[in-house]
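Q: How would the structure tokens look for this protein?
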Amino acid sequence: MTIKHALFTCLLVTFSTWAFADTHQQFVEKAIAKFQASERGKWAFTYHHNEIEEGEKTDIFAQYFPQNPRGERWQLLKLNGASPTQKQVKDFASKRENEGYSIKLTELINPQSLTIEKETAQTITFSYPVQLADLGKDAIGKLMGTVKINKSSASIEEVNIINTDEFSPVALADISHFKLNMQFQTINDSVLPKSSYMEMSGTFSFFIDIEETSKTVFSDYQFLGAKQL
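A: Here is the predicted structure in token form.
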């Protein structure tokens, strides 16, 4: 099962304490637009990813340099704690170049059906029903999400998605537990990924256990300002 790759293949009638006259939907849509407008392709960063899939553990430590030519932007530094071979370096760079690292919040956040979950002086959190086409029709009505937004900067800070019932994303697969957490950070008014965590468990063909977890951390951001090639 590689469902996570398909995930990887943010209001208000009016609050007297806010300076916004937007609806809930408009405010969340603006937060999503702010993230989408951040020039993530002009930031170099460090990438640390570890996962367990079907009992196999993988740990990746790499860097991303957008100014490099295609095929050389992703540089693998460590694979499972060891220095990679030249072939592993080349294969990783090619694979990541094709996959990219874009995050489509428009697919993870539903601004058309929002409920206020929690509000503090700094943030407001909304909950909403999730509809992810890649998880299949059976998942409709069985996934709930929350999005936390910084009220002063209108920047997304966190997105969570969990299942409320068992669902079947593909034939013969039944997912009993699904959790996705994504955190973001704002640097120089750019909203950038900070970390993502996913865990999923269930069964395939009635007797094969599905147990997957993955965590990715983005750090050491540096704005280069160079145009992407």
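The longest helix spans residues 24-37.

Residues 121 and 151 are 8 Å apart (CA to CA).

Upvote if useful.
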